[in-house]
Amino acid sequence: MEESSFSTETVVDIEYLEKFAAPKPVGSIVHDDWVSSLQGCQDCIVSGSYDKSVRVWTVDGKNIITMSHHTEPVKAVAWIKKGDPVSYIVSGSHDQTLLIWEWNSETKKAECLCSCRGHARSVDCVAVDSTRTKFCSGSFDKMLKIWSTSTEDMERDIDETDKSRKKQKTDNRKPVVRTPLMTLEGHKEAISSVLWSDVKEVCTASWDHTLKLWDVEEGVHKQTLTGNKAFLSISFSPLSNLLASGSVDRHVRLWDPRTQDGAVVKHSLTNHSGWVTSVCWSPDSQYQLISGSYDKTLKLWDTRSPRAPLYNMSGLDDRVLSVDWSIPEVLLCGGVDNCIHAFQASSIEPLKE
What we know:
With 353 residues, this protein is an all-beta fold.
């Protein structure tokens, strides 16, 4: 009370937060190399790795399928659509391309449908919009690009070889080549993270110490939020309308870009001792988020108590590169120890070691 300069006559509202059990480690999924990106959806997890592959796993740790077409490390993955039986996935790679994959859970086969070309350097991040009709990508070439997810009327780079292959099996076809719907310039350094904050709005984080908001319908830059150091990751909560950012200065910061003072940090969550490489909001709580860091920890935060994390999920063997909380019951992280680690947020079947 003294620190906040409250009068002794002031009525203070106190909110009671019920304590719940710490998330329990429930197993690890082993890759052949660093796990750079992952995202859960329903009962499956898609992951990208420095071993150049995209893999789909069940939540209990079974590798359903491995998709290999990239020629360099895979840096970003995202679900376009999780269907029964057909699902679509997009992946971005150090080979400067994004690939659209079709996976059929009944036939247990996957096909690379489309190769999205236009970036001049490594594609480090990708995000799909809420309508599942578009996705955006950010790259070390400093560019933000918008793409269509449509699998119809795709532009094919037809040559004589393609013509001769039309009658061959689908598995042998060359992927259709697609170009971006839109390219947006403005960052001075590499784009490290992208997301859709609205159907018409994209937010980007960059090594140039800025977060930028873009109107992708008009193709214009709307707003810039400036930090002290390079940004590595961002996450948006539609429940709280807040942006969370992770930075090389070891802080997680919360922003509300829709307010007049949107450039002002609402909260700083300070507890990591290394670069904060990835952040992700809870899918069903406006107050909770997780963060992963080079300090080999995954932390669970409640924004109503920002001075310290609720829990530290320690015991990881190396730097964390990616975190995900798309499945409400499961906290996920992947990193330099070549593993996806899962922590149980409520009662689920444990992962197989």
